[in-house]
Amino acid sequence: MAHVKIKMYATIREKFKEGEVEIDAETVIDAIKKMVEKYPILRDEVLNENGSLKNDYIYLLNGRNVEFLEKGNTPLKDGDKISIFPPVAGG
């Protein structure tokens, strides 16, 4: 079990004022689900109805997109940092 930090950005950050959350987990999806258990207000923000990572969000592990790693099954190590970015649009 790894001790990791999760930080949310943009619109998620506006709704959730905690800043960084520290969680013990084995994989990225495990960490996100444990965070949601602790802070249920985040459930619809970061997970689909079936409990998987939202496809339109960006989940980074130590600055690398988990989409190019093992997605939600990416294993964690002590000290890892997960960053969550919601979709953004601009012009």
Automatic annotation (TrEMBL):
InterPro entries: Beta-grasp_dom_sf, MoaD_arc-typ, Mopterin_synth/thiamin_S_b, SAMP1_3, Sulfur_Carrier/Prot_Modifier, ThiS/MoaD-like. Transmembrane segments: none annotated. It comes from the Bacteria. SUPFAM superfamilies: MoaD/ThiS. This is MoaD family protein. It comes from Caldisericum exile (strain DSM 21853 / NBRC 104410 / AZM16c01).
